[in-house]
Design brief:
Mean pLDDT: 91
Number of domains: 1
Shape: globular
Radius of gyration: 24 Å
CATH class: Mainly Alpha
Bound molecules: protoporphyrin IX containing FE
Distance between the termini: 84 Å
Number of strands: 9
Largest sheet: 4 strands, mixed
Order of helices and strands: HHHEEHHHEHHHHHHHHHHEEEEHHHEE
CATH architecture: Orthogonal Bundle
CATH topology: Cytochrome p450
Strand order of the largest sheet: 1-2-7-4
Amino acid sequence: MDSLLVSIYSIALILLGAYLILRRRYSYWADRGVLHDKPKLIFGNIREFGRTKALFIIIREYYMKYKGKAKYVGFYLFIRRTILILDLELIKNVLIKDYEYFPNRGTYYNEKDDPISASIMHLDYEKWRNMRVKLTPTFTSGKMKFMFPTVVDVATQLVEVMRDAHESGSFEMGIEFEDIIARYAVDVIGSVAFGLSCNSLKNPEAEFKVMGEKGFPCKHNWLVHSFMNSYPNLARKLGVKYHFDDVGEFFLRIVRETVTYREKTGTQRKDFLNLLIDLKNSDTADPITMEQITAQAYVFFTAGFETSSCTMSFCLYELALNQMVQNKLREEVMEVLTRYEGKFTYEAMNEMKYMEKVLNETMRKYSIVPFTLRRAIKDYVIPNTNHVIEKGMDVVIPIDALHYDPEYFPNPEEFNPERFSASEVEKRDSMSYIPFGDGPRICIGIRFSRLVIMIGLVMILRNYRILPTKKTEIPLQFSLRKFFMGSRNGIYLRTEKIS
Ligand code: HEM
């Protein structure tokens, strides 16, 4: 009986303690006189997330509610206190000018217990900088040119799979594009980052794709995830991992096998993995380890696969709904290819200027990564105010909300590539369009994603006209549960062979 009472008291005390800690956390912005919505216990300001609204919609609405009233507002991402910036000048300060205050993303990693989590995406300052310097040469224009034929090979398989789907697909309903394009992106990244033929285009259940999808998002529920991000040192001491064990083991094994094979046979391939192997075998004071190679190859997958494939799918969706844009784009593709005697080369791709506009507008209307984060490593006084962004505070940069702000993009629901004509771009502040973030931690894969998407689009457009079907959702419904932007029910479109 006594022990039962002790247990009840202990639980009550723990709950009371947790409640008091949360109450203190949630009074943070009120105590400092910063505008914010009153948070709900545990959920903070995102109670509707996963139930009635996608996260990017919640942030977009929050931004619009306070725009014009303040340059920054308090925002609770579950139990995580953050400051959400509305003002372009201040965004520029955080990402670029005063970057030394905000060098980290503040996302969780655990190098010891979960080595694949320690990638440049998550690493903190010194470790991040070291790795970024080593990896940057992998993404030059020269390297993209080199990888061009490998990507074209996979895109050729994409067209074959589309042909089969076209022949067997229902005319009424069309085919589900998001899945086919995702398999294309998996195969491209598997090939260039891991040196593997993943074959997921032909075999949708390929282990590589399954493991990759299991690796993101986090294996824990949002509450534990929020705890990991808010108290990373404690979480690391407790051995908390971001990934399931089998995901880490799978990627460590395949990288070890491929690296050993290449080293034994002296195989050289011009891909990301080769560069990582060179770094491992370099004479520098700190060559990278097998675990580090795996973590970096793995992040190309988690950061590159869904972002590129969803952008490409959303682009095809818009092209199906905007036939004039599609026709104009196809005319450009055909005209450039004719000039290059039908040969699709890296140089030919770079001449497709309307394609650039279409892609930019796609990434404006669909900001797959709807926000990015920075964590302050020292106190930062917000210029011309007496407010301080305290050390340890997370800053939210609302990428999607900026792209939907009618002040910068009038009539934001409209798909209009001409927003990206040189004269229109010149009129806008560069901070109003940041699909890849900005500053030293800007996306490292910009050129690579462009390569994957453009090659895929060219190969599709020269063979097929893309059309909507009865099943195409207009407007498109978005997944409520994803951190990234993704469709809820798939993207159904129809293809018509071009003679
Ligand atoms: C359309 C496709 C893509 C979009 C929209 C996108 C968007 C982003 C954004 C918004 C960030 C955060 C930047 C910041 O915090 O300032 C980011 C970071 C990153 N992305 Fe991408 N990304 C794309 C494709 C890729 C690809 C293909 C790769 C890899 C090959 C990649 C690798 C990374 C990495 C490693 C980071 C972290 C960089 C660092 O902290 O140093 N991304 N991306």
